[in-house]
């Protein structure tokens, strides 16, 4: 996946003049904090250096994960055309970039962010990309709100699309249920939660799923059912998106290849019911001559290996095109 050209150009303008050594140092500090899921009361994005390192090293991957999650929403609900977005823990505005790319009719966005430096960088980046006609379309009304979601969400109006991306891993576990409940109340259409594709990220998605189902939410994706999750540890439900690395991105991470694979877990729920597919592919498809083996989460609430052979004609032709994350109708 590539970033939208307008975002790629804005990132290049912001980052190309920065010292690579500074980006590398701040980037590896950030990576360590994210990997360890450090919760020491300090914000990860606690200064401009950390935010610029986030732009260089993390935004392309979190963009790709959010964009892929929104693609899964659009696939199940092709008529969904949100005009308003509420994004919580917005960072530099990643979810807004992904949402505007997926839903060009998006006209108004409210972005809540606790870190002042992240908000300053994000507000400048999103203004540059969306103000006026620079993006080739109508301007987008944006309201950046600095503050903790626990406080900053009070009195807000519901939005058609609500997003919470890569935020739950920064919160104390006891904050998950109240935040998810608040976000669900503010969801007029669809709520999308994205987390790192680690076992811990999946557990947070599962916890959010339980609370949302209890509150009456209907699952849009990835689960093709609302039964208990059939995936059993040490396995975990996650997906992957390949993202192109810019030169700065690659050098900040001291990488050698021009791409990386972002693993993510996600959940999208809606107020209204959504027809489930027969199954969703939970791992890379294994394709051999005349056969395709798919690991599927099924509408019946089970995980099953499905071997599709050439004898199945049209189903086989469909299955050959499927891969990790896709649905079998
Ligand atoms: C890893 S960044 C994710 C940014 C963006 N959503 C993305 O996916 O690229 C997490 C962001 O959530 C913000 N955040 C964490 N806890 C928050 C809270 N309680 N209220 C508001 N923002 C919060 C952090 O400051 C940080 O900018």
How does this model look, in words?
The protein is α/β, with parallel strands linked by helices and 329 residues long. The chain is built from eleven helices and 13 strands. The longest helix has 18 residues. It is globular, with a radius of gyration of 20 Å. The mean pLDDT is 93. S-adenosylmethionine binds next to helix 4, helix 5 and strand 2.
Spans of at least 5 consecutive residues whose pLDDT stays below 50 are none
Rounded Rg: 20 Å
Instruction: Please describe the biggest sheet, giving its number of strands, its sense, and whether it closes into a barrel.
Output: 8 strands, mixed
Number of strands: 13
Inertia-based shape? globular
Distance between the amino and carboxyl termini? 24 Å
Strand content: 15-25%
SSE pattern: HHHHEHEHEHEHEHEEHEEEEEHE
Which structural class best describes the helix and strand composition? alpha/beta
What's this entry about, in short?
By secondary structure, the chain is α/β, with parallel strands linked by helices. The chain is 37% helix and 24% strand.
Task: Throw out a few tags for this protein.
single chain; 329 residues; alpha/beta; 11 helices; globular; binds S-adenosylmethionine
Give the arrangement of secondary structure elements.
Layout: H1 5-15, H2 20-35, H3 48-57, H4 59-76, E1 84-88, H5 94-102, E2 108-113, H6 116-130, E3 141-146, H7 149-152, E4 159-165, H8 176-185, E5 187-196, H9 199-214, E6 218-221, E7 239-244, H10 247-252, E8 259-270, E9 279-281, E10 286-288, E11 291-298, E12 303-309, H11 314-321, E13 327-328
Parallel strand pairs: 1-2, 1-4, 2-3, 4-5
Antiparallel strand pairs: 5-8, 6-8, 7-8, 9-11, 9-13, 10-11, 11-12
Helix pairs in contact: 2-3, 4-5, 8-9
The protein binds S-adenosylmethionine.
S-adenosylmethionine is lined by residues 43, 45, 59, 62, 89-91, 94-95, 112-115, 118, 148-149, 165-167, 170-171.
């Amino acid at each position: 996946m590539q970033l939208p050209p307008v975002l790629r150009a804005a990132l290049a303008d912001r980052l190309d003049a920065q010292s690579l050594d500074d980006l590398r140092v701040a980037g590896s500090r950030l990576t360590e904090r994210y990997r360890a899921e450090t919760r020491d009361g300090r914000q990860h994005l606690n200064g401009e250096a950390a935010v610029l390192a986030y732009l260089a090293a993390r935004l392309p991957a979190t963009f790709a994960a959010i964009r892929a999650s929104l693609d899964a929403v659009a696939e199940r609900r092709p008529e969904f055309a949100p005009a308003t977005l509420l994004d919580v823990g917005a960072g530099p505005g990643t979810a807004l970039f992904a949402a505007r790319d997926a839903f060009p009719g998006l006209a108004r966005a409210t972005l809540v962010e606790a870190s002042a430096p992240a908000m300053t960088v994000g507000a400048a980046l999103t203004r540059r990309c969306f103000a006026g006609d620079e993006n080739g379309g109508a301007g987008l009304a944006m309201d950046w709100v600095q503050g903790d979601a626990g406080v900053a969400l009070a009195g807000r109006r519901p939005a058609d699309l609500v997003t919470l991306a890569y935020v739950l891993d920064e919160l104390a576990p006891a904050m998950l249920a109240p935040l998810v409940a608040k976000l669900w109340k503010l969801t007029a259409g669809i709520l999308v939660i994205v987390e790192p594709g680690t076992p811990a990220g999946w557990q947070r998605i599962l916890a959010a799923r339980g609370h949302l189902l209890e509150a009456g939410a209907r699952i849009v994706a990835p689960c093709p059912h609302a039964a208990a999750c059939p995936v059993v540890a040490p396995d975990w439900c996650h997906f992957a998106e390949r993202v192109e690395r810019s030169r700065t991105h690659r050098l900040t991470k001291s990488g050698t290849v021009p791409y990386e694979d972002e693993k993510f877990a996600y959940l999208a729920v809606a107020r209204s019911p959504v027809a489930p597919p027969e199954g969703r592919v939970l791992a890379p498809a294994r394709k051999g001559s005349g056969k395709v083996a798919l690991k599927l989460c099924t509408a019946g609430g089970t995980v099953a290996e499905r071997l599709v052979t050439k004898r199945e004609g049209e189903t086989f032709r469909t299955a050959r095109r499927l891969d990790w994350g896709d649905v079998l109708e």
